[in-house]
């Protein structure tokens, strides 16, 4: 019994140490994505994705993140939600961070569930802070990127908070989200589209809409990542969620999920993501 207790304490201590060390780490995860319908002018387009920072800080105004982003020389930067947590009210550092990002490349933002949870007036202040920092806000709206007479569309879908939780913050009976609702929010498919959608767990709807590439976050890599299995838990308290980190495909649509930066995690370091688009033509 004593030996078992010693082993148990040693294992728990090792996990705590691993978790502490891992919290100091941020990595750049790179992914090439080949896409059938990508206009040739956008071959090798580099998209830098940032997701789910929440309360995490990597230096003043996130200078360690900025250093990594600058090193990658992206063509465009996308923030796929939860740049802050729902209890934050001072957005000055967030504004400074976004202003610095904008000096590297154009910045696009789509909203996450923590931002949806902000009181209306607070959310308005937050959005205004991002706008003043030069961020392009995509709330069920699009950003056309043009090159050599060709265009691709970045569309940010907001979703309804009921997709994430009910009025009591329970996850037992989440509202479904249909193709009809998505079309009502962002219209019908109108050309090559990169869909910025915080929640990856409704990939089937995005694929039915025919999005070429979906960039998501939200699941935090599954919080704890297990060898040969993957992510353990979703924010909705569901075990082994289908989409936790990396590249997935359904029909002609591809989904890339960032494990993000913030929240508790184990064997799952914080990350930013460089996605390079490749044309199959």
In short:
This protein is of the alpha/beta class. It has helices at 2-22, 63-72, 92-102, 113-116, 120-132, 179-186, 203-209, and strands at 26-35, 45-50, 76-80, 107-110, 136-137, 141-147, 150-157, 193-197, 213-216, 225-226, 230-231, 246-250, 253-257, 270-279. A hairpin with a 2-residue loop joins strand 12 (246-250) and strand 13.
Could you explain the architecture of this structure?
It is built from 7 helices and 14 strands. With 281 residues, it is an alpha/beta fold. The chain has one domain (2-279): Metallo-dependent phosphatases (Purple Acid Phosphatase, chain A, domain 2). The strands form 3 sheets. A 6-stranded mixed beta sheet has the order 1-14-2-3-4-5. The longest helix is centred in the first third of the chain and has 21 residues, at 2-22. It is globular, with a radius of gyration of 19 Å. The termini are far apart. 38% of the residues are buried.
List the helices and strands and how they pair.
Blueprint (H helix, E strand, L loop, with lengths): L1 H21 L3 E10 L9 E6 L12 H10 L3 E5 L11 H11 L4 E4 L2 H4 L3 H13 L3 E2 L3 E7 L2 E8 L21 H8 L6 E5 L5 H7 L3 E4 L8 E2 L3 E2 L14 E5 L2 E5 L12 E10 L2
Parallel strand pairs: 1-14, 2-3, 3-4, 4-5, 7-8, 8-9, 9-13
Antiparallel strand pairs: 2-14, 6-7, 10-11, 12-13
Strand percentage, roughly? Answer: 25-35%
Q: How many structural units, i.e. domains?
A: 1
Radius of gyration: 19 Å
- Could you give a short account of the major beta sheet? 6 strands, mixed
- Identify the overall geometry: globular
Helix fraction? 25-40%
Going by CATH, the homologous superfamily would be Metallo-dependent phosphatases
CA(first)-CA(last) distance? 65 Å
Unreliable stretches, pLDDT < 50, 5 or more residues? none
Q: Please work out how many helical segments DSSP would assign.
A: 7
